[in-house]
Specification:
heterodimer; A: mainly alpha; 2 domains; about 85% helix; B: mainly alpha; about 80% helix
Chain lengths: ~140, ~160
């Protein structure tokens, strides 16, 4: 393979890395601040114990939260033990991974405003719809 | 592209200002956040290397024609399966994958398949045992099924909207 082609590809990759750096550092710093500043116990206090309303609250909470998905399972599990409905917990853990308000600037930057707003909006709605489907199917089984 | 670059630098400056304010208002929160930041940054670093290795490979070998064939609008069922599987096995935080997806889109990947990739990332095989522990088998099977199904719905809608 021509040496020039490899150097060209390496240069292009290096520049995309440099371009990503300020954005990546900002997002990571904001995520770190959010995770450190918001106590996990706060989540349980926000729910109303009304299943329909809680599924929307769950989706909103999941959307604004960030961090490892495994954390959402742990918080979700604890919320369930605290008496919060499974619909709410399901929409919460789903939107945690699929909707990202904190990552929104990065997604808009790379994939365009129209794409990122529509994708996040639909993912938010889907989190609520899927949670209804899952709980409904579980009841039938 | 230039205004985009300026946008990311402005975001970085705003973040720095927020941290400076927090330093004066709540030193404990400041240091805890920084400790957490260094922890996730180190954890993400090796994944970043993998992502940029992929970008390097795509820059080197993949021609727009190939991308259009396998991941373009007319790639058919093969394109959907590739995006779905790639999303499920992709590691690390979502934002690490944006540069590569943006690169692939410029080379011809359809918006629907990008959406499929991003949504199917919700299926996390390595941490499925944790989910089973908290919610049980039936829940995990149903969730996985619906997540895959809705990632395809999302892809179809995104593809249609990109034509409009």
């Amino acid at each position: 393979m021509e040496k020039n082609k490899v150097i060209g590809a390496a240069k292009k990759t290096f520049f995309s890395f440099l371009e990503m750096l300020p954005l990546l550092l900002s997002i990571l710093l904001l995520v770190s601040l959010f995770i450190t500043a918001v106590p996990k116990s706060l989540y349980a206090k926000i729910f109303t114990k009304n299943a329909a309303l809680d599924s929307v609250i769950g989706a909103i909470l999941g959307s604004v939260s960030a961090g490892q998905p495994v954390t959402s399972y742990i918080i979700g599990g604890e919320l369930l033990k605290a008496g919060i409905s499974l619909i709410a917990v399901t929409s919460f853990i789903l939107s945690w991974v699929t909707v990202g308000l904190i990552q929104l600037p990065a997604e808009c930057y790379y994939l365009g405003k129209k794409f990122c707003f529509l994708r996040n909006f639909l993912s938010f709605i889907f989190a609520i719809v899927i949670s209804l489907f899952v709980v409904f199917c579980l009841r039938i089984i | 592209m230039k205004t985009k670059k300026i946008g990311s630098i402005i975001l970085f400056i705003i973040t720095m200002l927020i941290y400076i304010v927090i330093y004066y208002v709540n030193k404990q929160l400041f240091f805890h956040s920084l400790r957490y930041f260094s922890h996730i940054f180190l954890k993400l670093f090796y994944i970043l290397l993998i992502v940029f290795f992929f970008i390097f490979i795509t820059n080197l070998f993949l021609k727009p024609k190939t991308i259009i064939k396998y991941l373009g609008r007319g790639s058919g069922i093969r394109g959907w399966i590739i995006s779905l599987v790639a999303g499920i096995i992709s590691m690390g935080s979502i934002y690490l994958w944006y540069p590569m997806l943006s690169d692939l889109r410029e080379k011809g990947m359809s918006e629907g398949l990008i959406a499929v990739f991003l949504y199917s990332r919700a299926v996390k095989i390595p941490i499925l045992p944790v989910m089973i522990y908290y919610f049980g088998w039936a829940f995990v099977v149903l969730m996985t099924f619906f997540m895959v199904l809705f990632s395809i719905f999302l892809g179809i809608i995104m593809d249609r909207s990109s034509v409009l």
